[in-house]
Amino acid sequence: MARISHRREPAGDEIRYVEGGERLKYPVNLVAEAIERDARAAGFPYPLFRVKSGFRSIATQEVLWQRALERYGSAEEADDWVAPPGRSSHHTGGALDFDLGYSINSRNVDRIRATEAYRYLAHELAPKYKLAPYSREPWHWECDAACEDNILRMEGRSERGAATPSTSSTVGKVLLGVSVVGFMGVGGWFLWGKAREEGWWRL
Ligand SMILES: [Zn+2]
Q1: pTM, rounded to two decimals
Q2: pLDDT tens-digit profile of 148-188?
Q3: Ligand 1 mean position to 40 CA, how many Å?
């Protein structure tokens, strides 16, 4: 139950897609899948507990950082809400932002903390799957090496080498390449997605 201390990006063949299109490092994707199963069984409807943000490359973080600089005006302020490129735990593929019913936004911290979904996550799921919290962002949880070992044990997959390469890892590599080369193109797509998502949540 500790946060991830390194900032290494996963290898291309370690990347897996989860429900909703986000990417995570194997076997953290198994944690995300198990959590969705548990949540549905406990009566939480879709899309609660879907992963809204998983693996983010350093190149993608650069786009978010520039956006935060524009929004908050200074690096000191922006730093409170967006990690500068190279520092986010999302670079490792082991950090998960969950859908807890409100958009992932600094304005919604108290609202999210008051939800039944958050309480279920904090009191039942996090101890079970050994996820570490980040107190400033109730949607953000991290799966370190001990958490990875835990899910491999729970699923009866004793070795990391048991990972089956998926065809989507090729897609992951292509997307990674595109995000490095097509910096502004990806940024525009990402911001459009965020804007659409936030608008949708306000309805
Ligand atoms: Zn996060």
Answers
A1: 0.76
A2: 999 999 999 876 754 555 555 565 555 555 555 554 555 55
A3: 22
Query: How far away, in angstroms, is 185 Cα from ligand 1 center?
Result: 22
Measured between alpha carbons, how far is 121 from 197 in angstroms, rounded to an integer? 22
What integer pLDDT is reported at residue 168 of this predicted model? 56
The Å distance, Cα 93 to ligand 1 centre, comes to 11
Angle at 60 between CA 56 and CA 62, to 5 degrees: 125
**Is 6 inside any structural domain?**
no
**What's the domain count of the chain?**
1
**33-56 pLDDT, tens digit each:** 999 999 999 999 999 999 999 999
Measured in Å, residue 38 CA sits from the centre of ligand 1 at 21
Q: How many whole angstroms from 98 Cα to the centroid of ligand 1?
A: 8
Say if 4 falls within a structural domain: no
Q: Which CATH number belongs to the domain containing residue 182 in this structure?
A: 3.30.1380.10
Task: Please give the distance, rounded to the nearest whole angstrom, from the Cα atom of residue 172 to the centre of ligand 1.
Answer: 19
Distance CA(25)–CA(42), nearest Å, equals 26
- Say which residues have a Cβ less than 8 Å from residue 161's Cβ, sequence separation at least 6: none
